[in-house]
From TrEMBL:
The keyword Cell division applies. Belongs to the MinC family. Residues 104-117 have a biased composition (Basic and acidic residues). The gene is minC. It comes from Biformimicrobium ophioploci. Keywords: Cell cycle, Cell division, Septation. The keyword Cell division applies. HAMAP family: MinC. This is Probable septum site-determining protein MinC.
């Protein structure tokens, strides 16, 4: 009889709640606004709470912070914080995500799972997908740019450690710079996406300026914020 289980690496994008400061009333108000506006994306979403850029980390009421998240339908699964908070994180029965620099493109865990893919060819540092990416599919271009010559359907997800180019309609989710490459960009013929992300910074469809909807655009990352421009 073989082992009843096995561990497998997996590329599962997670939402990061990056805290700048902790003032309970303000946080509760802003969480309520964000979860109401982005209910489809944030409802019961697994979230890693990052205190990496928070002021006065030692004075943060971690239990109060986590309870505020849960009260607004967000499910913390880990906390990215200094080692000084390791005991409090352990008491909360959450994972302690240690602080560290972004890994450049090309540095990955060796056990990464190969996700479901549409037929494609891959040469050098570019993966080419020449058929539509259907709802429920996930395409991952590891250590490479991703070119999709067809459309990406709602509910599909395309991920690349480098740039993403979509020559059809881009619905679904597009995640470029997945390993932390802040110079990555997203290009598409028609912006209809549910989410776009570069190096962990993301925008949901409700946050896109209307003038870009359905148009040819490029997305870049500047000062930790996504910049959308028409092509």
């Amino acid at each position: 009889m073989g082992t009843p289980f096995k561990f497998k690496g997996s590329l599962v994008p997670l939402t990061i709640l990056e805290l700048q400061e902790f003032e309970p009333h303000t946080l509760a108000t802003e969480l309520q606004k964000s979860t109401a506006k982005n209910a489809a994306f944030l409802a019961q979403a697994p979230v890693v709470v990052s205190l990496e850029h928070a002021s006065d980390v030692d004075g943060i009421d971690l239990e109060g912070l986590l309870n505020a998240c849960r009260e607004h339908g967000i499910r913390p699964i880990g906390v990215k914080a200094p080692d000084a908070l390791a005991s409090a994180i352990s008491d909360a029965q959450l994972a302690h995500v240690h602080l560290g620099k972004h890994r450049p493109a090309g540095e990955h865990d060796s056990g990464a799972k190969k996700t479901e893919e549409a037929p494609e060819s891959q040469q050098g540092s570019t993966m080419v997908v020449d058929k539509p990416v259907r709802s429920g599919q996930q395409i991952y271009a590891r250590d490479a740019d991703l070119i999709v010559t067809a459309s990406v359907s709602p509910g599909a997800e395309i991920i690349a450690d480098g740039n993403i180019h979509v020559y059809g309609r881009l619905a679904g989710r597009a995640i470029a710079g997945a390993s932390g490459n802040q110079d990555a960009r997203i290009f598409c013929r028609a912006l209809l996406a549910e989410l776009i992300s570069i190096a962990g910074c993301y925008k949901l469809s409700d946050d896109f300026p209307k003038r870009f909807w359905g148009n040819s655009i490029q997305v870049s990352l500047e000062d930790d914020a996504l910049r959308i421009q028409k092509l």
